Structures are given as structure tokens and as C-alpha cells.
Amino acid sequence: MAAVDQIKNLIKSYVEDDDHRFFATAMQIAASEARKGNTTIAQELKMLIEKARKDKSTAFVESPKTVSLSAPRRELKELIEVFKPRIDLDDMVLSPEVQESLSKLIHEQKNWELLKKHNLRPRRKLLLTGLPGTGKTMSAQAIAGELGLSVYIIRLDGLMSKYLGESIAKLRMIFDAMEEHRAVYLFDEFDSIGSHRDRGQDIGEIKRVLNSFLINIEKDNSNSIIIAATNLPESLDKALFRRFDDIINYPLPDLKQISKTIKKATKEFLFSEKPDFDKIAKLALGLNYSEITKACEEAIKEMILSGSLNLNSLEIEKSLSKKAPLKDG
Fold it and tell me: For domain 65-250, which architecture applies?
């Protein structure tokens, strides 16, 4: 039977919509049952936890809650996914340069009225570039969380149409929504519509959509925040870059950031011995934040299933070593 404090913590985290603490507490309960020899119960709890995580997973690392568009426009609902985030910048590990850029935007947004008095506008149009798993899409969620806004994810597959002019009309609806609903609008995998216009394959509707995007983002004077994210900045049309207030590159984590990521991922658990995080971090050089976090989760699962009382740093090293070959793939 789970300890009273664990049950209280589980209920409290559920009420406060704190997914991280909720799942961490649930895993602690599963580990406790495994230590008592109740391996069947522990396995059932583990399966339930994994299913719950999967069900809540979306494009973000920490899954947000789906909410309805306040405007019941059927066409718009087919183009946009709306999420209410529950994280902020403190939940992320970022390079100092990225942290500074995002903090500057948030600070300006929180003081937009003061800037307006001086006929100035806050930063609100970002182009995020970098390898997969480095935190680009999660940053959109963190910005929204800091400002108390929803995240509107643009469905690029729903945007593109084979019918002449229809894609442009849909894009216009999205920019109209920015005026009506203040939110963080995320164009993920932006290179799918933002590639060079002079490329032979980028003709027809895709070229027209890019031209339309350039016009709309130039004219846009809403209070919404526009974020475009891409893994392939070199493929973007050069005319796009000057349309954004900031272009932020997301690097792979260095040793310090890797160590901090591992500490964050394992903070709810005790180690069987004092871990050498600097040594562990060296094994993860070249991996992205997502891969590092998943390696830690695998070590935690091993702890639960083995009925161990504490985490073993060797299991984390083992999990990281398994992922190391993938960094070049």
C-alpha cells in the first residue's frame, strides 16, 4: 500500500495539473511495490503510467492540455491544434544565448504597455533553428506558459491544398485568427512551406503560399507571438529572415547543460551512491536533450522493475552508451 504522503502528493499534483510531479510520484509508488515483492502490481502500475504518458504526449516533451478554439470556425479547427501549456523557462535547460533571447522576448511582452507609450512594439516574431530534440518546439510552450497564453500549432498538412488559391485562403484565416485570439502561433517544420522560391521543385501552390506568408507576416500587427521552427535553415528563402525580430539557433547541449539535464530528469529519485554527473555527461556528448532525457527514463524503469531502492548511475551510463551511436545517424 502506498504511503499516505505519496497518495497526498499524487492527489495534489493531479489537482494542480503538475504532470511531472504526478508521474514521478506514481513511479515512486510502483518502485515501492516492487521493493515489497509485489512485482505484478508494480508491472501493472508501470504499464498504466506509460500509457498515460503516451496518451498525453503531443508535439511537446511535457504534454499540454487540449482546449477548444474560442471561435467555432470549422475550417480553422482543421488547421490549428490548441494547447494550454503548463511549463515555463525554468523547466528547460538552454544555452545562455538562447535563454537570454527568450527571456528578452518574455520581458518585453510582459511590459508591452510601457513600450507602447513610447511608440515601441515588443519582440514577437521568432525563427528558431537547430537539430531535432534541442528544444525548439518546447520553447514555444515555455513562452506561452510564462505569458499565460495558449499555443496554436499550425497543421501544415492541412494548410496545403491541391486546389488553386485554397492554401493562400487558409493561411489568411490563420493570420486573421492572430488578430482575434492572442496566443503563441507555432509553424513547426517551417521549411516545408518556406523553401527557396527559385528552386525548381518549389513551384505552383507551395511558391504561392510562401509569397503569401511573406506578405502576411510583414503586414501582421496583432498582439500574438509568431514562432517558426526548422531543422533546415539553409533551405529557407532568404527573404524570410528579415521578417523575424530574432533568429535563434539551438545548439546541442554542452557538458554543463547535459549534467543539468540529467539532474533534472532524476531529481525525484535517490542514487545508491553519489553520482559523478560530470563523468556521466561525457558519455552524452553529441546527444540532444530528448535522447538524454529518454536514457534517464530507461534507467528509472530498470530501477522500478528490478525492485531496487535507488537509482544506479551505471544504468544511466549504460542507457546513454546505447544511444551514443544514434547521434551520427
Answer: 3-Layer(aba) Sandwich (3.40)
